[in-house]
Design a protein that fits this description.
- The structure holds two protein chains of two kinds.
- By secondary structure, chain A is of the alpha/beta class.
- Chain A has helices at about 15-25, 40-45, 75, 100-105, 140-160, 175-180, 195-210, 225-235, 250-255, 260-265, 270-285, and strands at about 1-5, 30-35, 50-65, 110-125, 125-135, 165, 185-190, 215-220, 240-245.
- Chain A has a nine-stranded mixed sheet, with helices on both faces.
- By secondary structure, chain B is an alpha/beta fold.
- Helices cover about 35% and strands about 30% of the residues of chain B.
- Chain B has helices spanning about 15-25, 40-45, 70-75, 105-110, 150-155, 175-180, 195-210, 230-235, 250-255, 260-265, 270-285, and strands at about 1-5, 30-35, 50-60, 80-85, 95, 115-130, 135-140, 165-170, 185-190, 215-225, 240-245.
- In chain B, the strands form two sheets. In chain B, strands 3-6-7-2-8-1-9-10-11 form a nine-stranded mixed sheet, sandwiched between helices.
- The two termini of chain B are about 15 Å apart.
- Classes of the chains: A alpha/beta, B alpha/beta.
- Bound molecules: iron/sulfur cluster (2 copies).
């Protein structure tokens, strides 16, 4: 079983479209959506839930006004300035460290556990998929990502699937670190924009930091061919393979509106490029 | 007035809108780029960076000579950032600090009965302040491999200048960092695109903003691409559509070169300035 993770410096580069296409092409695989902040893969794969569960993490302080004597100790020690002047806890600022609850002489502060999300194991027309939904305004998506990936790995091992295909989290923060861990390859999907290149470099640094080999897909390269060439030159200098250059294709949006992957929707230059990219992924994975 | 610009997801045009606003509004304006993971606004603003400040959190350092391995610090740490390992016959015990997990709350130091814990600064990122004419620009950049952006976002927001019209470019998503960025805004602009992905993310973000009780409106980017469902949703929910930016390869190409839409196409300037008036109407309701 091998894991390939599709990532991007930023959202909106076509990461999910590529992941879903790989899912449509690959023969034996489990899909994972690690973009738990704003999961989208299910919009293309139409999953039917088989199993689900709650995800809890972190706590938030709550002051019981009946016990609180307004001594001010908690307000004084809280470095996140979460205790307001009228002795309420601002849940947005509270980091759940519990310092206040330990220090309160009246034992008026309780730490309440947050239900931060829900995970699902589902069936799709391409096989099993594991995904999650992080509750509004919650943090700790890194832990949820790890949980979701762990479940996918379990299923892949149990049912003997060849690949785990991961729609990674955008950005370079905690969730991406969790997305990357244990991956055999990372596919960076980038657009030919100044910010695209800028973000992609950070992602490469991140993947290297975790020793995961990197490949590039340049999406919508025809929006700015000079920039696309710059990205290619950058990859060349860094000895990174560019496994596909994909042009802007309205069919991709049309397929999306119908809830399909581009692979199912059309047979054109875009789908050929994605098929070749998948071949490149599998050949490296064979090593 | 503090206006934050958010979107459920990256790539919808949030930076296009926040930088265009900053460049179109009259009077002294401040732009805070709070996307500490991937700050991009500077590419379009091209500010002259005048000051760079490090962002620190305080993490514990345990003096092994004093530590009695009582384990109190590990007990109080809510983030498992400290592990106290008792010694076995041959190996000496140790108290280990995992600095990347530490939120810098200071609890461990306070509760250590032996006073064995000191705190030291750990750099998690930087904040840069720059100018472009009258426009004041601030962004934060967190160190690569760093897990937590809120400390950097908070440091950016500490630079908030109430004497100016403030535009806050929020990070993407609907979780902690976005909330930290949007917190305290007078109004919010949600940027979306008219695709099923865009609509899905918009719904999530609307939930967040409603919870925070901030007046808001929507800007539809790449209008003409995709379908009508986003507009139908806004109409149904009574959400004002403040502006539609048409889908155009020319706009995308200018964007890819790091040129703001209002510089490439000045006719949009008035529309962006007008967007704020519409928001003000929303606020007075
Ligand atoms: S400062 Fe807080 S988070 Fe950091 S190690 Fe101490 S108790 Fe844990
Ligand atoms: S509380 Fe103080 S003495 Fe006890 S293990 Fe922690 S650092 Fe050592």
């Amino acid at each position: 079983m091998k894991q390939v993770v599709v990532i991007s410096g930023k959202g909106g580069t076509g990461k999910t479209v590529i992941t879903a296409s790989f899912a449509a092409i690959a023969r034996s695989k489990v899909m994972v959506d690690c973009d738990v902040d704003a999961a989208d893969l299910h919009l293309l794969l139409d999953p039917a839930t088989r199993q689900n569960g709650m995800f809890k993490s972190g706590k938030t302080a709550e002051i019981n006004p009946e016990k609180c004597v307004k001594c001010g100790l908690c307000r004084g020690i809280c470095r996140f300035r979460a205790v307001t002047a009228d002795f309420k806890v601002d849940p947005i600022s509270c980091e759940g460290c519990a310092f206040c609850s330990f220090i309160c002489p009246e034992k008026a502060i309780e730490m309440k556990e947050n239900v931060t999300g829900e995970w699902f194991v589902s069936d799709t027309r391409f096989g099993p998929m594991v995904h999650a939904r992080l509750g509004i305004a919650e943090e700790n998506s890194g832990k949820l990502v790890s949980l979701v990936k762990g479940k996918a790995k379990e299923i892949a091992e149990k049912d003997g699937h060849e690949w785990v295909i991961v729609d990674g989290s955008p950005g370079i923060g905690c969730p991406v670190i969790a997305s990357l861990s244990g991956a055999n390859a990372a596919i960076v999907v980038t657009e030919p924009t100044l910010s695209g290149l800028h973000d992609a470099k950070r992602v490469v640094a991140m993947a290297r930091h975790f020793n995961v080999p990197v490949m590039f897909i340049i999406n919508k390269y025809d929006l700015n061919e000079r920039m696309a060439d710059d990205i290619r030159a950058y990859c060349c200098g860094e000895k990174i393979d560019v496994i596909a250059r994909i042009g802007f294709d309205e069919d991709v949006v049309k397929a999306m509106v119908e809830g399909k992957t581009i692979i199912e929707y059309a047979e054109n230059v875009t789908t050929r490029a994605i098929r070749e990219a998948w071949e490149a992924v599998t050949s490296i994975g064979a090593g | 007035m503090i206006i934050s610009v958010a979107s459920g997801k990256g790539g919808t045009g949030k930076t296009t809108v926040s930088t265009a606003l900053a460049l179109s509004l009259p009077g002294p304006v401040q732009l805070l780029d709070c996307d500490a993971e991937e700050p991009n606004a500077h590419i379009f603003i091209k500010p002259d960076i005048k000051r760079t400040e490090d962002v620190f959190i305080y993490v514990p350092r345990i003096d092994e000579d004093i530590c009695t391995l009582c384990g109190r610090c590990a007990e109080v740490c809510a983030y498992n950032a400290i592990a106290v390992l008792p010694g076995s016959g041959r190996t000496a015990g140790r108290a280990l600090v995992f600095r990347e997990l530490c939120h810098g709350c200071g609890s461990c130091r306070y509760f250590c009965p032996e006073n064995a814990i000191k705190e030291e600064k750990r750099k998690v990122g930087v904040v840069e302040v720059g100018y472009r004419g009258e426009l004041e620009f601030v962004h934060g950049r967190m160190n690569i491999g760093e897990a937590m952006s809120p400390p950097v976002i908070r440091a950016v927001k500490h630079k908030l200048n109430k004497g100016r019209t403030v535009i806050v470019d929020a990070p993407p998503g609907t979780t902690c960092p976005v909330i930290t960025a949007i917190h305290g805004s007078d109004a919010c602009v949600l940027v979306t695109e008219p695709t099923p992905f865009g609509l899905h993310d918009l719904r999530l973000t609307v939930e967040v903003i409603k919870k925070m009780d901030i007046p808001f409106g929507v800007v539809i980017n790449r209008h003409g691409l995709g379908d009508e469902r986003t507009e139908e949703y806004c109409a149904q929910e009574g959400i004002p559509v403040l502006m539609k930016i048409p889908f155009s390869k020319e706009i995308a190409a200018e964007y890819s070169r790091g040129i703001s839409i209002v510089e490439a196409f000045p006719e949009y300037r008035d529309e962006f300035a007008g967007l704020v008036k519409k928001l003000e109407e929303e606020m007075s309701r």
